[in-house]
Amino acid sequence: MIEITLGSALIYYFASHALEVKPQPTDAVHYTEIADPREKSFGRQHREVVSIKPAVEDQFRGIVRQAYDYSCGSAALTTLLNGHVGTNLTELQTMEGLLRYGEYERIVERRSFSLLDMKRFVTAIGFESGGYRGEFKDLIEQTQPAIVPISYAGFKHFVVFKAYKDGRVYVADPALGNISFDEERFKEVWENNTLFLINVPLGQQKSLLALDEKDLRHVDDATVNRFAFVDAQLNTDYVNKIADRASTMRLIIDKDKNSDTYNEPVRSYMRLYYKRK
């Protein structure tokens, strides 16, 4: 009798929890709840498939995340090209293009990309672009995204301006994702009021960098400083060692006549970050 009862219960349980036979999305999660919370009956359960995605996917929606600690320039340019122009580049491909068409020796010397390097690469792939200086009103009146350099917590950094709304500036940050600044705070960190634009015919422009309702949130400076710029509080020599380990080494000819290795090949650490000339 016990065996029959147990067998019936198992059959009923598995029948009411039949396995899905249809192909399921990789992000599918099966959500089950009792249709009527007052009636705890197996036969009145509601079950459906819910798609779950990591929060980081939305945080970096439309953004090419920088692969190295100091490669914000190439990542920001790739983000602008893919999201506004419509290319399908990786950060590595953009780096290679910047090194090929930019001022290679100066890139190695200053260990960073400049807006001129960006302009030369963008021209090489068939688009017009340029770096400009303007007032804040000139930036927010633009109908297109732009690369802007900022100086924050001792670091110089490239981000992509997306939009301005209700006193806040929304940017695509290759390191932090989609974030925003208070208007006055952005004016303080905006470096030299400089912006870099790529001219694309209106009908060909893409909207991957358009402001989304998910962007309408606030990230205060304390949070940004805590998670992105903690190394700014460390000893300078220690920070430089960390940067060297994360950089790319290249052999160059030593041009310093006072050096013991003059005219000999030496290792150079090429850190890819924004630095004003």
Give the N-terminus to C-terminus distance in angstroms: 88 Å
Specify the helix fraction band.
25-40%
Are there runs of 5+ residues with pLDDT below 50, and where?
273-277
CATH superfamily of the largest domain: Cysteine proteinases
Supply the CATH architecture of the largest domain.
Answer: Alpha-Beta Complex
Structural category is alpha+beta
- From the alpha carbons, calculate the radius of gyration and give it in angstroms: 26 Å
The tally of strands reads: 10
Report a brief summary of the structure.
It is built from ten helices and ten strands. The chain has 277 residues and is an alpha+beta fold.
What do you see in this structure?
The chain contains ten helices and ten strands. The protein is an alpha+beta fold and 277 residues long. Strand 4 and strand 5 form a beta hairpin. It folds into two domains: 55-218, Cathepsin B, Chain A (Alpha-Beta Complex), CATH 3.90.70.10; 219-276, no CATH class. It has helices at 2-16, 55-59, 72-85, 91-101, 104-110, 115-124, 136-140, 183-189, 221-228, 236-245, and strands at 28-34, 45-51, 128-133, 146-152, 155-165, 168-173, 177-182, 194-199, 248-253, 265-270. Helix 3 (72-85) packs across helix 4 (91-101) and helix 4 crosses helix 6 (115-124).
